[in-house]
Specification:
single chain, 104 residues, mainly beta, six-stranded mixed sheet, two-stranded antiparallel ribbon, 25% strand, globular
């Protein structure tokens, strides 16, 4: 998958983490999408860097990305399980989202 360009001074944009060098103070929210959640995004990246102007609710970030909340069973911020509805995220955080898993 190709990385999106990262123009300086354009917070709020999305790009693939490996190529991103811009953003406020050089930091971003690192987002990992588990399993098939990446299918909902263009280019289907499993990791993104998201630059924010200010902290936002995790549910708002999910809405901005057009991910279906019903498909997110596990959410973690900086390695701590959180509620998708109540958590806040800001630049420098690592966010992981995973769908329900089944097996047999």
């Amino acid at each position: 998958a190709r990385a999106r360009s990262c123009p300086e001074g354009n917070p709020g944009h999305l790009c693939q983490r490996s190529r991103c060098q811009s953003g406020i103070n050089g930091t971003a929210v690192e987002l990992h999408l588990g399993s098939y959640l990446s299918w909902y995004l263009p280019d289907q990246p499993s990791s993104l860097a998201i630059h924010l102007d200010s902290p936002i609710a995790l549910r708002e970030l999910v809405e901005r990305l057009k991910l279906p909340p019903a498909e997110i069973a596990i959410a973690a911020v900086n390695g701590i399980l959180v509620s998708l509805q109540d958590a806040q995220v800001s630049d420098g955080d690592r966010v992981e989202l995973h769908p329900p898993n089944g097996g047999g």
